């Protein structure tokens, strides 16, 4: 492989400088400021602060509201990731077997991906609205008095359904690409060795999709934790304060609506450490089971 040649030894650093500057301004500096602010009781109006040590961390971890939010976030992330990956894989396998009208079928499954999260949240609110929502009428057939914004778990289920629906097309695209990249000779050899379609999928096809699945698992967890903010904001806006929210939304609500900047910063640092641990677990434990060749 030919190495790139530069006239000056400083040229590589000069080319990297804009990107490093963006990372420093928009990622490193806010993270450092959040860590500093987490040790202070901040005055949101005059910009002054009183050093309180670890009190903000103790208050956050000992609050029942924070533990309840953390439990809901875990359930939300687990179900959204699991459901969107499973349904996306199932649709991709179905689309891979379609012979006629394949392009139309794929387009119908992928168009949801173009919807912005707040718009998806608005559609979800309309579908589950107590006055005009068709899904509320459907739940009433089974005697379920569905009350979004009033009942804690009804609101949580709405969030899970809308977030899953929004993410399915993204998983579908990658799974379908992964399925179509499997060599035809491998599929033919597998069909000769094993007549059961179901067994052939789990012993041959699914292991070959392991790199794609691992990649999507990471992205789906990040999506459920961070990118559902706009959708959640639209669903719980102007609703009673006992609606379920994720940890990211609680950081925003306590910091910008409650003016508790120090406590909000402590929560964001705890969330940052949680994501760091989760990332290490994913790459140290799960990636070992993924075979790229």
UniProtKB/TrEMBL annotation:
SUPFAM superfamilies per the UniProt record, alphabetical: MetI-like
**Membrane topology for this entry?**
Multi-pass membrane protein
- Main localization, broad class: membrane
Q: Please tell me one Gene Ontology term that the record gives under cellular component.
A: plasma membrane
Record localization: Cell inner membrane; Cell membrane
Ranges annotated as spanning the membrane: 12-32, 71-95, 107-128, 157-179, 200-226, 266-286
Which keywords has UniProt assigned to this entry? Answer: Cell inner membrane, Cell membrane, Membrane, Transmembrane, Transmembrane helix, Transport
Q: GO biological process annotations for this chain's record?
A: transmembrane transport
Q: How does it assemble?
A: The complex is composed of two ATP-binding proteins (UgpC), two transmembrane proteins (UgpA and UgpE) and a solute-binding protein (UgpB).
This protein is called: sn-glycerol-3-phosphate transport system permease protein UgpA
Protein's organism: Parasedimentitalea psychrophila
């Amino acid at each position: 492989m030919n190495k790139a040649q530069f006239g000056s030894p400083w040229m590589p650093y000069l080319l990297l400088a804009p990107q490093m500057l963006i990372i420093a301004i928009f990622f490193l500096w806010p993270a450092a400021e959040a860590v500093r602010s987490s040790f202070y009781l901040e005055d949101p109006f005059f910009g002054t602060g009183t050093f309180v040590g670890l009190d903000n961390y103790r208050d956050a971890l000992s609050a029942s509201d924070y533990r309840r939010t953390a439990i809901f976030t875990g359930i939300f992330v687990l179900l959204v990731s699991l459901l969107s990956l499973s349904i996306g894989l199932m649709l991709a396998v179905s689309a891979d077997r379609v012979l006629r009208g394949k392009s139309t079928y794929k387009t119908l499954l992928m168009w949801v991906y173009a919807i912005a999260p707040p718009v998806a949240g608005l559609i979800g609110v309309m579908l589950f609205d107590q006055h005009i929502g068709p899904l509320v009428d459907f739940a009433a057939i089974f005697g379920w008095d569905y009350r979004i914004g009033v009942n804690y778990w009804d609101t949580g289920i709405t969030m899970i359904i809308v977030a899953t629906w929004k993410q399915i097309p993204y998983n579908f695209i990658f799974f379908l690409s992964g399925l179509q990249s499997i060599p035809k000779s491998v599929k033919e050899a597998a069909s000769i060795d094993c007549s059961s379609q179901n067994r052939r999928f789990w012993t041959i096809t699914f292991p070959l999709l392991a790199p794609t699945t691992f990649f999507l698992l990471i992205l789906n967890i990040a999506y459920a934790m961070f990118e559902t903010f706009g959708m959640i904001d639209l669903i719980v806006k102007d609703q009673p304060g006992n609606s379920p929210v994720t940890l990211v939304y609680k950081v925003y609500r306590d910091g910008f609506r409650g003016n508790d900047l120090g406590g909000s910063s402590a929560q964001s640092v705890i969330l940052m450490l949680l994501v760091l641990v989760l990332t290490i677990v994913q790459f140290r434990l799960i990636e070992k089971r993924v075979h790229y060749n």
